[in-house]
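User: quick one, sequence for these tokens?
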């Protein structure tokens, strides 16, 4: 009987330790999410300025009749694909899902530029 009681107490203690580790991992993940949000907000002005600059460049190229392949829309519905992936662990199936989606898109279109 004492042996069985000891096993039950050990099991309870193990469950408590697992709960404590899980809480710590959750706290770390929450902190990382906050840091990523801050980084994203800090990068927003760069993205907006890049978009504005590219729009101006596109308008200038169009008005001056520049015939560079980057400034000409393909007549047959081509596409450009920018694949953004993760080089860190703990992202689950993210990398595989992104790569699979990009591959499907490339196979659907006749002419695709990968960036």
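Assistant:
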């Amino acid at each position: 009987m004492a042996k069985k009681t000891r096993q039950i107490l050990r099991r309870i203690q193990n469950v408590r330790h697992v709960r404590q580790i899980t809480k710590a991992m959750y706290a770390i993940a929450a902190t990382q999410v906050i840091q990523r949000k801050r980084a994203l907000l800090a990068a927003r002005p760069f993205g907006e300025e890049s978009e504005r600059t590219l729009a101006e460049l596109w308008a200038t190229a169009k008005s001056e009749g520049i015939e560079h392949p980057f400034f000409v829309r393909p007549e047959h519905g081509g596409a450009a694909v920018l694949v953004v992936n993760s080089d860190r662990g703990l992202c689950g199936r993210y990398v595989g899902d992104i790569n699979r989606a990009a591959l499907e898109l490339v196979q659907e279109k006749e002419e695709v530029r990968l960036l």
